[in-house]
Amino acid sequence: GQKHIFDVRGGLPFADGSVAEARSSHFVEHLTGAERVGFFNELWRVLAVDAVALIVTPNWSHACAYGDPTHQWPPMSQWYPLYLHRDWRAANAPHTGFTCHFDHTIAGSWDPALESRNPETRSFMMNHYTNGWRDLIVTLTKRA
Hints:
25% of the residues lie in helices and 26% in strands. The protein contains 4 helices and 4 strands; from the N terminus they run βαβααβαβ. It is globular and about 45 Å long. By secondary structure, it is an alpha+beta fold.
């Protein structure tokens, strides 16, 4: 089975600023909202400044985000990384409980049914239709 090192009660078992890179694939969507806040705050704590974390989740507009009954609400969307940035959060969502500060980039993977389509069509479908953008791939960079 898979091994998870994040303990919602105890955090991540690493010293402050000691991690150079982190990856999480299809884990965050299983956390409750409060657990997600704790996870991203802990991730920020353990990463070194300018270190990156790659976070992969099902995209909110794909059926796989809703198909697994162990996924928690809400599904993950392109908006969530905004809440992880200190300045955006201060202006728009100071109530959230996040203490982290990340810059981010967003990418995605398309549904296999789109493999044969040209890149422009895939891009349009990923952004405008359900079941086009299967995975949401967010790269977070820790800022001081």
